[in-house]
Model the fold of this input.
Amino acid sequence: MSKLFDARVLLALSSALLLAACGGGGDGEASDVPAPAEAPALDKYLGTWQGCALNGTGKSVRATYQITEKEGKFSYSRRQEAFNANETCSGSADVDSTESGPIALTGKTTTVDGVAMDQATLTFNEFVLSKGNITSFPTQGPYKQLLGIVDSTKLREGDPKAAKDAEGYPTQLGSTVFAKQ
Done:
């Protein structure tokens, strides 16, 4: 009886392995299963981008984006320096802060103020205030942002203070135009 039992166990195991090897016994071909979606690359955004925004009251803000890639993972660093004494983004900053973390494109685009913008998510893991005071700390994310390249040399971003669309992205562009460094 043990030889008959062993043969049944062997037959059952062989059948299970054969069924697993061919994909489970369904009629569909392996190509019927869609491949997982791959996140779009941020290659066109790689590098350092810098811009100066004026607020019309004798103050200015210099912002610098640095977007990098390592082993297929993209990250960003955004430094803001506020100058309370001039509109030229020069001299000693009164406030100096940096946020950084992972960044990813969603694969969707939208048009804002006539500019084609990529929808992105940013999560900042680190916020460093090296000079000045902050009275409110922004959400750590992930938060939704828009990024776009204009004239192949200028980076634009959505205005995080603007109203949001139905998907939660800014409906206006920020005032800073970033130039590739």
User: Anything to note?
Assistant: The longest strand covers residues 95-112.
